[in-house]
Amino acid sequence: MTPLHAEIAALITAEGPLPLDRYMALCLGHPRFGYYLARDAIGTAGDFTTAPEISQVFGELIGFWAAATWETMGRPGALRLVECGPGRGTLIKDLLRAAGVLPAFRAAIDLHLVETSPRLAALQREAVAASGITATWHADLGGVPPGPAIVIGNEFLDALPIRQFVATPAGWRERVVGLDGARLAFGLAPDPIPAALLACFPAPPAPGAVAEIRPAFGHLAATLGARLPDGPQVALFIDYGHARHAYGDTFQAVRAHAFADPLARPGEADLTAHVDFAALGEAAREAGLAASRPVRQRDLLFMLGLEARTQGLMQANRKKARALLEAVERLIDPAPTGMGTLFKAQVLHAPGLAVPAFDS
Ligand code: SAH
What we know:
The chain has helices spanning 3-15, 20-29, 51-54, 56-72, 90-98, 103-108, 118-129, 216-225, 277-286, 297-303, 306-316, 321-331, 339-342; strands at 18-19, 79-84, 109-114, 135-138, 149-154, 163-168, 171-180, 183-188, 210-213, 233-242, 252-255, 258-260, 270-272, 275-276, 290-291, 295-296, 343-349.
């Protein structure tokens, strides 16, 4: 039993079963025992590997994209460059190096990193140090000062807590985490669900269908929307997920690069769920932003010049050429569950702005 298991069990005994978003927020962000708080979970030695950890090309291409986006924003002299959930800082390190191709862009960067984990913030500080650019850390996007901004989040949204609802003969019921003896167990809350909450899902659901929503999208979009009066805003999010509202239980735990039971060792496994990009787009529009269609990671990387960059690197490092190519191929893997198609990118932006690679 993990220390967090004991705390959660006591909470359930006192207050009743917990909705999934509460459980997920505790497991990931509990101030003492939360998964991200003290752990370096990312990379081959950790629990999961992300695109920037697979190949430097990923962060570099996003750097080229950010430079081009800054130009379409009218080359603001001070740009808040923000990364949400920077992990080990690899993406931002590669991005800042690539930003050197456009010195005026690099000079305009005022770097802000949104991170809740002190351990990861320390790694980010090391990663950024070599660039000579100073960064400021925030626990929430709301802490970033006003002004034109480019916000980037890779595998950030999937860590934001979800709520789940199950279609029963009596109507939708919320899935909760309760106790079965000492064990944590899923259950359903007895209360009916206001129909408006799930109005965006195709009706009628098949019996047993699971619908997921991510309440934090509202806050995220409102925070971005509130920045609009102080200059153009562009936010790029890349994550695994689906382009349309779809039923399905995507709540998952990953530990040591394998799927695990999300209730088995709270605080010791990464908990995530797929991103509903349609829901993110709707939250953005409600907050006064425009939202692009989600594009597959594979298509985005090709549009940003993947082939030329990969070839350049392979020629410069002939001994590592094969490894470089294999890593890039993983990022664009076209199989249904491969990174190239499962991962999608979407931009939320000031209405009327033509964002490079998303202007359709
Ligand atoms: N972007 C990185 C890391 C992804 S892991 C990469 O691609 O490698 C998720 C990251 O989001 C971690 O840095 C984690 O600490 C951070 N995080 C999770 N929930 C967060 C929250 N609510 N606010 C800010 N950061 C959060």
